Amino acid sequence: MPERIQKLIANAGYASRRESERLIEKGRVTLNNRPAKLGDKASLSDSITIDGKKINLHRFKERETKVILLNKATGVVCTAKDEKNRDTVFNYLPDGHRWIMIGRLDINTSGLILFTNNGELANRLMHPSYEIEREYSARVLGELNSDHINQMLNGVSLDDGIAKFDRVQSGGGEGANRWYKVVIKEGRKREVRRVFEYFNLQVSRLIRIRFAGIGLKQNLKQNQVEELKPHQVNSLLTRVGLQKVKKHIQR
Question: Which amino acids are annotated catalytic?
């Protein structure tokens, strides 16, 4: 049955569905020797190339889903290649799989990032319709009052739409700085920082500590990775309506 090209590319583990769409828009993808366009459909028997290299659509038709967790340090960028030759998250990932990043963090934010070899899992965990929780620990210069918190929970107007926190919890602190734990269900650019900035409060440190129920362990050092256990992977698959895959067939 024909599928949209971006879904086939994602299922084969070459990129997330969103990244596949960007590759198509930039003219880097061909379908049966012609430039591909968004909306094109194909089957596993068709020929698809990325940057002139034919990809194997069959290779991960069935395979064991792997997920790893990276504790990203500040200063590390979330891109495969960086024009400024800065340190990237992909420098710290193990070989053996084509890893797809599940939600990026900006250069000044540290903490948990998940990577998987399953393109459809990555796409669903990032898609807003699945309302996946992301929890952050934020150190803020200043202090929230009850009115601030109520507005954060009800939603504030940013330049790209309404943004809100699902939970806000005080994390203590002394002097001018206070810590807060906040939960959001979207992954818009700098969303947590911008919500605080709406109240003229500056975030001086931001750490993602949980994503889709997977928490960041305190003993995992920065820029170290940890492979999720099978029951954790199955939990993620179940959360977004995907079947557990245990077989690994490479063609």
Answer: 106
pTM of the model: 0.77
pLDDT digit string (tens) for the chain, length 251 residues = 788 999 888 878 788 888 899 999 999 999 999 999 998 999 888 999 999 999 888 765 556 899 999 999 999 999 988 889 899 999 999 987 789 999 899 999 999 999 999 888 998 999 999 999 999 999 999 999 999 999 999 999 999 999 999 999 998 887 789 999 999 998 888 999 999 999 999 999 999 999 999 999 999 999 999 999 999 999 999 999 987 654 443 33
Q: What is the CATH number of domain 67-128+213-239?
A: 3.30.70.580
* CATH annotation of 133-211: 3.30.2350.10
What secondary structure letter does DSSP report for 218? T
Q: How far is CA 74 from CA 7, 105, 247, in A?
A: 32, 9, 37
CA 86, 89, 93, 96 dihedral sign is negative
